[in-house]
Protein 1
Amino acid sequence: MRGVSKDGHGLSWFETAQVRLLTMRVDFPGDGARLGLEPPVKLASNSAAVCQVRGPGMTYCCGVLVRDGLVMIADTRTNAGLDNVSTFRKLHIFSKPGERIMAIASAGNLAISQSVLSTLTEGLEDPHTGEIETLLNAPTMFQAAQRIGRAIRAVHATEGVALQSEDINFDVSFLFGGQIKGSRMRLFMVYPAGNFIECTTDTPYLQIGEHKYGKPVLDRAMHYDVELYEALKTSLISMDSTMRSNLGVGLPIDVLIVRTDVCDADLNHRIEAGEPYYHDLRSRWSAALRAAHQNIPRPPYKTETQSKS
Amino acid sequence: MRGVSKDGHGLSWFETAQVRLLTMRVDFPGDGARLGLEPPVKLASNSAAVCQVRGPGMTYCCGVLVRDGLVMIADTRTNAGLDNVSTFRKLHIFSKPGERIMAIASAGNLAISQSVLSTLTEGLEDPHTGEIETLLNAPTMFQAAQRIGRAIRAVHATEGVALQSEDINFDVSFLFGGQIKGSRMRLFMVYPAGNFIECTTDTPYLQIGEHKYGKPVLDRAMHYDVELYEALKTSLISMDSTMRSNLGVGLPIDVLIVRTDVCDADLNHRIEAGEPYYHDLRSRWSAALRAAHQNIPRPPYKTETQSKS
């Protein structure tokens, strides 16, 4: 089979075929996984039938762990093809104020990520003790992250074969951050296999979904000693860069800020379209980039080779 | 099969497996396509055995078509896994000064892109007239682009089955730009299937390879009326953003500038590591981004919810 172009340019049959492919591969929760054959897929007016297209690039979530605390942001755009776009919350908060606060941001197939969250909320039975394990009764953040992994594997065990038979990847990933009183604040990224990595001070952020457009600004501006709301500002610029380049990422944006050792949300906010601060941030960033660009001198190479032409 | 994480973070077995996959899938030109089994792949000391890893993200080329002319830039990093990195020219110029100038930038599997270029240089026989068709005797830029497509299909016909049997995608793409005296300057992007799109004034640039990191600055700063060397400057900033985030893209950078209706290179230059102008551009851009970031006010949300915490 010949390769398929990865970019969004173009009007050729090749791109059309690609869009059709994206449109076709949607899930119908409650009715198993289906692969439609005629684009555009006709979905029932049931909003639960709106699912994320598989593959990367249709969500952007970013978690930042700095000395002062934790920032997590997530967009809310969900789609089952360009002709079916909806708003679903991807940032979920679990807390007992003052004792623990945990947040999960999800990317990937919405049917899978919702099933994982429901499994975690209902709890998983420990095979040895019979105890029902949830995030809220996990002894440590590490064990809570393991429980997310176990929930992913449980959903995979239930859904994986049926999805595979319909050629649907088991595509899901999570950011998981928070703090339990008496332990340190931690941030993890959990993979589709249920394994995970932890954020460290060298690179104090993790991303899931469409991560590339928004990474350069994080690489340049984010470090462990950044003030907490400055870290939010950088994350919002990163989100802006992503939204400008990928229509699959969009407003509103959910924001959680947790200050170290408080074990409660310092900020739990939704940025809606047209909000003055975010609108101003986007305008200022654009204007500053234009100015920065103008202030760089013109390349001098022509002078070197002037004699040639 | 479970999904594979698309990002470069992480030290888990999942990432290790991914890197191994990248390392394994290399081509050995002159010996057919092989899929090694033991990482790291041991390549012969023959430099021709150094090939690009398949898949996107290991090259960055950008073409810009503005009123004043054409800019094409390409990095030169080529790799067969992280343990085998080399420098290969990806920007190739075909010209009869004053009569025509054409340039091809390539991304993808190096064995394939080199075969396509060699096929074009040797020429393809027209089945009806018996004429040997090359880029330099193409009547129009459109027909020249069609010849690139035909060369890709010829290489696919020869190599495709053997590559497929080794599970190697036919991964190659080209930017093709230039002008023939008496016609307008044109810029195309040619896909692995040999079909192509043409750059227009609305979005006056095309990219191949690792295009995401460098796209935001193009989207913000590039338009059809930008001066030619300003367009080069923006392209170099775009290249800088890409190189900072993807080790698969690296210096030196090849640059071609063609002024409209001149049909000769205005600039044919290689930017080497440590070159003062490019070094200065990178420093200024970084400093300007930091300043832009600092000049955006801190998010005001905390004030709104101050009563809460």
Protein 2
Amino acid sequence: MMTTEDIYPSRTGGEATVIPRKDPIVHPRPQSLIGSEGSGESALAGGPLSRAQLDRYEESGYLAFDSILSSDSLREIQTRAQVLREAAVTESLTDPEIIREPGSDEVRSIFAVHENDSVFARQLRAHGLTAIAEQILGGPAYIHQSRINYKPGFVGREFYWHSDFETWHVEDGMPRMRAFSISISLTENRAQNGPVMVIPGSHRHYVSCPGWTPEEHYRTSLRRQELGVPPRSILTRLVEDGGVHSPTGPPGSAILFDCNLMHGSNGNITPFARTNLFVVFNSMENELVAPFSGQPPRPGYIGCRRPQKLG
Amino acid sequence: MMTTEDIYPSRTGGEATVIPRKDPIVHPRPQSLIGSEGSGESALAGGPLSRAQLDRYEESGYLAFDSILSSDSLREIQTRAQVLREAAVTESLTDPEIIREPGSDEVRSIFAVHENDSVFARQLRAHGLTAIAEQILGGPAYIHQSRINYKPGFVGREFYWHSDFETWHVEDGMPRMRAFSISISLTENRAQNGPVMVIPGSHRHYVSCPGWTPEEHYRTSLRRQELGVPPRSILTRLVEDGGVHSPTGPPGSAILFDCNLMHGSNGNITPFARTNLFVVFNSMENELVAPFSGQPPRPGYIGCRRPQKLG
């Protein structure tokens, strides 16, 4: 793998610092793809998101949707997520893609469902999502990661504040901020069952975290985040600027957010389970290189190293 | 201490069961106190709560107030709560009334502030609160417990579902359900910083919990509840009936709830600390007896054994 300049260093042994973002948030479509009109506006022509939505996304780093799937698609995905989870429990599956809760056998996440399951493969490559990805990323995209997150009732644990990009950069070798995630609720997202909380505007600041990355960090970090963690002083400053938002909504509602948006979630002692489908789209021009930690890359089910162009 | 029949057995080694409540929720004022009119209605005459509020309290087991204190009282209490906490930290106080967070030195609670601090002593004996207590409890009342709960930002932990009465009965010897609590927010109570969650209607059902009470249980239970915990199947049923409510509001807002209302709170990873003043009023006719666990009673700063009539 080629060597790439590290413009977003983190966990390199220094103090925590804030580095300004060096990449666009909505990426311009290259001239060669725009066609004869050639104006800036035409970069958006035909994309599913409106100018107002793109402006909001630039500003806040996220968009909330009341409903992002047809009711048929939603039902199919909900059923399939349930089937996969039950199989994991009743058959005591030990596939590495299945992550358990710390301190219990409850299923926390199942990774790479777009590769290992035909229902998710079809649904996540559907035209609508691909068109959004191409519009935000300014050209062809692929799925960097997919997973179902099950936050069981009663024992769902918190997930501390983090930027996904920080981890993808350090541990997977994602060179630039040209990716985003969609989290689709498969159960009702309530204020009380540990919904995703975001810090609006935090996507403009890269928090370079203290410490180093130990070998095979992913084996524990997917259960409980302890490295790549921003200090409280910086989180406090980001929250003073942007506040904390936690969109709620019915099954099928969704939140689309920039790869560098600071987010996390509280625990969940309610009986209401919280299940979501999480999928990351990355630009075909932003393929992974060698991880900036200097460690071997994480497995392909966590960060795809053989991109297949969508659409 | 005299022996009293245990009509609410719990942690006596049996299976978890649900026992119907055997006590009123709003307690009638004894005839001797009513005066010449003598009708049922006159029991409420002059009380601060309206008929509609009392009906709602009977039905749901709680009342939420936007503001329960004058702004002067609120400011005085807020300042004093801050002073007490800072003293606990900077002077590394080891008073038993000061409870720390599990796994850190952060202050979780300070007990018995109505006894040990002149500001709280005066504020908590103020006429308004006493009048509410006498109205709900049907006569003279005293303060069974008071405490400031600090839920610090970033590290505030969850507090699992429980009925306060279950613990007060088993560990303190409170014979009957003739007590209630007021939790007054001293900081903003947001959906995201671990507000109190209640299960409306759960106050009508007493959950007799499995297990036994170990000696000196309070030394750990105030940091993390592990006994007197209702099973998930019963919690699920209570929530199916009543849902989960979590009133939010500005500093000075309050929630008043029955001693047997099932409640809990999620953790808090936000920078927003959550501080509340918690005070328990008990009827002078419901004084503590020997704990039903058969163990020695907990210290007086947790459950008052020398009642002083309010008003």
